[in-house]
Amino acid sequence: MLDYRVSTFLTLYDEMNYRRTAERLNMTQPGVTQHIHYLENYYGVKLFEYNGRTLSRTKNAEQLKRYFDSIKVQEKDVCTSFCTNDLVHITVGATKTIGEFVIVPEVRRFLMTPNCNMDLYVDNTETLLHMLEQSKLDFAVIEGVFDKSRYGYHLYKKESFVGICAKNHPFANREVTLEDLFHEKIVVREPFSGTRMLLQNAITDRGFSLDSFKQCTSINNFSVICDVVANTHAITFAYEPIARCRDDITTFTVSDFQISGEFNFVYCNEHIARKKIEAIFN
Question: Which domains does the chain have, with CATH numbers?
Answer without folding.
Answer: 4-57 (1.10.10.10), 84-151+263-280 (3.40.190.10), 157-262 (3.40.190.290)
